[in-house]
Amino acid sequence: xxxxxxxxxxxxxxxxxxxxxxxxxxxxxxxxxxxxxxxxxxxxxxxxxxxxxxxxxxxxxxxxxxxxxxxxxxxxxxxxxxxxxxxxxxxxxxxxxxxxxxxxxxxxxxxxxxxxxxxxxxxxxxxxxxxxxxxxxxxxxxxxxxxxxxxxxxxxxxxxxxxxxxxxxxxxxxxxxxxxxxxxxxxxxxxxxxxxxxxxxxxxxxxxxxxxxxxxxxxxxxxxxxxxxxxxxxxxxxxxxxxxxxxxxxxxxxxxxxxxxxxxxxxxxxxxxxxxxxxxxxxxxxxxxxxxxxxxxxxxxxxxxxxxxxxxxxxxxxxxxxxxxxxxxxxxxxxxxxxxxxxxxxxxxxxxxxxxxxxxxxxxxxxxxxxxxxxxxxxxxxxxxxxxxxxxxxxxxxxxxxxxxxxxxxxxxxxxxxxxxxxxxxxxxxxxxxxxxxxxxxxxx
Length: 445
Hints:
Rossmann fold
């Protein structure tokens, strides 16, 4: 068991933390949705059409390029709507539940582990590096990395989300160990460790993004060209273990509803893909002067949604913040107010420890896009052995040789989320990295 200290990064101390760890039941959702964009790398081909009945755990579509990879329904009911966008791209598959909790597809636990994961729909919850996509079913990973904590702002405690299902972790490690010739690594925070799991345990101590699987991979055994590793979180690992113990996929989840825009930050028990209305009902702060931004996920990597939207993968966090706290601010960036917030020493607030005090941040950009400032900002926020600013430039220019040399195979968009927040150039770093990885994958294919 090794202790790995992470020095680079930053913990955003946002208003809206959960103070009570009690879990209550969410309101019933009128319908549920599976969003294909949550599973990067899969091109959906429908197995069900509108009006078809579906059982919980039954496939609703498979990958066009690999029919073995299937995405399943979280509830039993009727396929109510297949929402399409431009060029008939499938944006969401909406399922109206029938209330029959016994209509569950049961799987043969004696089946080959890979086949069972593919058939059950748990396979798309894994991620592969390089490219940060759903793993290729034909490729055996060098190693598998499981992160046991989420260090993002206001993120839920994965220990609490895991709950009693931690008893399935050992089984999950046993199953995953058969799918790699290398090791299964398990990364814990300093305050929470599960012993005797069968995995190689590492303890990480440091600020966000210490909980990111990619950062943990980079600290333990980086990905080189030609190598493939899988990553997942400990909650997904528990679902895998539970599947092999019970023959059923557990689609229930504990969700943290957080942020300055909710009356009572709290944990709720619900089902994957539920409507956000069911999670936020009677809990949004009603302030006409401050419109709210609803985010399915955390403030750095989450998806902007409206109240009628759905909970996105990984199905455990909803954040609500103000769109704009103050439309007009005296002197703006030139303000000398000790209340002005910055992670840098740009304002007098840092003298009083303002960088680490609880703060109510909004969605305002506070500036516009400009040329990259080569100041080492990205490196301060990205604890990986890469030259982040030069990598971003190489991706924008799509210089394949430089991208490979600078570590494109190691990274995922989420690794740049904190750097994107801290970036004085206001570049959409996550979008740039995602587009670079997609182009790279297409080129290599």
